[in-house]
Design a protein that fits this description.
Structural class: alpha/beta
Largest sheet: 7 strands, mixed
Distance between the termini: 46 Å
Radius of gyration: 16 Å
Strand order of the largest sheet: 3-2-1-4-5-7-6
Length: 229
């Protein structure tokens, strides 16, 4: 079974996601206890998009997040470097393109907004990815990063870490097409920076007005920013 390491070699990560694509959506819903739907709705709300706008949904996977964004009336494009994931979401009625977050296949200032959900931590160079997102976003355009983060309540934090390293792999063995991938995913979540550290990285990549809001007690955080213009 394919499993990436925390050095996040792009070929290894793409291959790993190809391996989980078939049951990715149902696995996420089971592992998140259904919270994934809530997180997608909150991401759409935070992005504040609407009719006539062009939106890039990066690391979109099977495009379930893109379909949620498209409910706003905006034109939404799903992009991912795992062709297997895009193929698994081929039945979803949104445009799709394969692309690397560090070398996006778009011109400058193309999109009104860009978002990435649960994918930034899988980019080999997250800062380069954030700079690319800024490059393809028009001045005044918006960014929302939805990502696992650091719970704000100590008791919740302890329970969450235990779930990540013990329960999550066991549940994944029951429902995932590639359980080993979820060991990597649990490790990558634990290694990811907390909310203030990620906010600084976003600002350093050229975004302004960076702020964040915690969801589900900080298990997930929405970081929002604006491209200066």
């Amino acid at each position: 079974m394919s499993r990436a390491s925390l050095n996040k070699d792009p070929h290894d990560v793409a291959s790993m996601f190809d391996g989980v694509a078939r049951r990715y959506d149902v696995t996420n819903t089971v592992l998140s206890l259904g919270q994934d739907r809530y997180w997608r709705r909150e991401t759409r709300s935070a992005l504040n998009i609407g009719l006539g706008e062009a939106v890039l949904d990066l690391a979109a996977g099977t495009a379930v997040s893109t379909v949620e964004l498209a409910k706003s009336g905006a034109w939404c494009l799903a992009a991912d470097f795992s062709v297997g994931m895009l193929r698994a979401g081929g039945h979803r009625p949104v445009p799709k393109v394969a692309g690397d977050a560090t070398r996006l296949p778009f011109g400058d200032d193309v999109f009104d907004a860009v978002t990435i959900s649960f994918g930034l931590r899988n980019v080999v160079d997250p800062s380069a990815g954030l700079r690319e997102m800024a490059r393809v976003t028009r001045p005044g355009g918006r960014l929302v990063v939805c990502e696992f983060s650091t719970p704000t309540v100590p008791v919740l934090s302890t329970a969450y870490k235990e779930y990540l390293m013990q329960a999550l792999p066991r549940v994944a063995r029951a429902v995932s097409s590639n359980p080993e991938a979820y060991v990597y995913l649990a490790e990558s979540i634990r290694a990811w920076p907390d909310q203030p550290t990620l906010a600084r990285r976003i600002a350093d990549a050229g975004w302004s007005q960076v702020r964040w809001r915690n969801l589900t007690g900080g298990i997930v955080a929405l970081h929002a920013a604006v491209k200066p213009g």
